[in-house]
Each structure stands twice: as C-alpha cells, then as structure tokens.
Amino acid sequence: MSETITITIDGKECTCEKGEYLYDVAKRNGIFIPVFCRHDAFEDHRACCRICIVEVEEGGRSKVVTSCVYPVERECNVQTRSEKIMEERSVIMALLAHRAPEAASFKPMVGRVGTVETDRLVTLDGEKCILCALCVQACNSLGTGAISTVNRGTEKMIDTPYGKESAACVGCLSCANVCPTGAIEYSEDDAVRTIWNREFELIRCGECGQIMGTRDSLALAAGNNEVPAVCDECRKKHMADEMMATYRYV
Ligand code: SF4
Ligand code: FES
Q1: Ligand 2 atom closest to 132 (CA)
Q2: What are the residue ranges spanned by the domains of the chain?
Q3: Which of 20, 97, 113, 188 lies in disulfide reach of 16, CB 3.0 to 4.6 Å?
Q4: What is the pLDDT at residue 113?
Q5: Cα 229 → chain centroid
C-alpha cells in the first residue's frame, strides 16, 4: 500500500505519495516550477537542463535538487524561489541563452526566471537547440530511434547517425512537434516533406484531401505496411453514417 506524506512547498501544505517526483507534486498544487526537458508524455525523465532546481530542507539540512527527478521520501520543506535558487537558476538560464540565442520560444521564460550577465560564455550564433533531448525521447518512444545526441562540448547537437539520411526515420514530425524551441527544421510542398536530410512522400486522404502523414509513418502506425485510404476524420464520419443507416432500418 502506498504511503502518504505531507510536505510544504513555498509555505503551502501538499500531500503526496511516497516516491512521487517533487515537480509533479508542485504542479498538482498549482506551484510553478520552470521545466524545459520534462514532458508529461514521456515516463523517462533525463534531467538535462536543471532549470527545475529547488531547495529542499530535510532533517535540518538544506540541499539543491532537480525537482523533476527528485522522489519525495519523507517530510520536507521546499523553496522553489529562494534567493539561492533564483541565483542558480539565473546562471542556468544564462548558459541556455548563450547556448541557443535564437530559441525565441523560451525568451518569455528568460523574463520570468531572469538571467545573469556574463562575458565568459561563448554564444553559439544562430543556434536554437537547448539540448533538452525531448526530440530524441519522442523518436525513441515510436521505436524509430533515428536521432540522438552526437559530439561533445560546444559541438554537441542532435542529429542522425553521422549526419546522414537515416533509414530508421519515417518523417513523422514527432521530433519537431515536441521541440520547445522550434529548432528542428523541415519543409513541405504538395507531395514531399523534407526533414533530417531525407525526402518523404506525403499521403493525402482519398476523400477530404488533407495530408495524413508520410507513407513511411503511416505504414509504421498501421503495423502492416499498408497505408490507409482515408483519414481518421473521414473514417469516423463513414462509421457514423453506417450506424445511422443501420438504426434507420431496425
Ligand atoms: S532539437 Fe528541440 S527538442 Fe531536440 S534537443 Fe534541441 S531543443 Fe530539445
Ligand atoms: S526540467 Fe528538470 S532537469 Fe530539465
């Protein structure tokens, strides 16, 4: 049977189950902790960005922990915006802002969290990727595993193996859709989607003409290499029409 624990976050009493991650407890109680590399769709949290740090006081001792992967084991007092945390978070924010100055979508967060001024960091001009690895998780969750983190230091990036066309990629856009900073570029015309240096045939619904996906991604989703003739919406409409017709005659 699970054990219930009461903890205090920013002065608010919160109950949780033993082992629950601190970030989840805070979120459930309406307490904001910034996150970049954490997405509820994935169970495996990699704690890449450290923006979610908080201060935890347990048994008279205080420590800074990464809340998205910190399991609550006992009663504790948590500060999400203590002076120490705000200072350390500003440094993390500065590192990210220098790493990816073009990551426009997290600029509002810079305003909310704050950043420190420093001339000791190298700015990667034009970079948008903050290396949160959500794209890699999205790709892995489909079983495709077409992209990963490659290189080290300032050369670290997300790419296909050796930067070449990946046979594993199905062009589904899961990576681009989950990316918080719009760092994954792709293009589309009427018939072809280009992403990760590869072109994919686009399939349209035989009835409404909407793009349903790439041939490869639809075949993967179907599990039998067969591409559906109509989109989900049209298929549902057909089913509804058939049911209506059936009921009309009973
Ligand atoms: S491309 Fe986007 S999702 Fe992938 S690591 Fe970079 S910022 Fe994160
Ligand atoms: S959100 Fe917790 S380490 Fe990135």
Answers
A1: 4
A2: 4-113, 134-240
A3: 20
A4: 63
A5: 31
Provide residues with CB under 6 Å of ligand 2: 35-38, 47-52, 66, 68
Phi, psi of 193 (to 5 degrees): -110, 135
Nearest-CA neighbor of 148 among 171, 127, 169, 128? 169
pLDDT of residue 228: 87
Give the CATH fold of the 4-113 domain.
Answer: Ubiquitin-like (UB roll) (3.10.20)
What residues in the chain have per-residue pLDDT under 70?
Answer: 1, 104-107, 109-118, 120-121, 248-250
Classify residue 241 by burial, with Cβ atoms within 10 Å: 0-12, 13-18, 19+: exposed
Q: In this structure, which ligand is nearest to the CA of 132? A: 1
Q: Name which of 247, 144, 126 is nearest 195 in CA terms.
A: 144
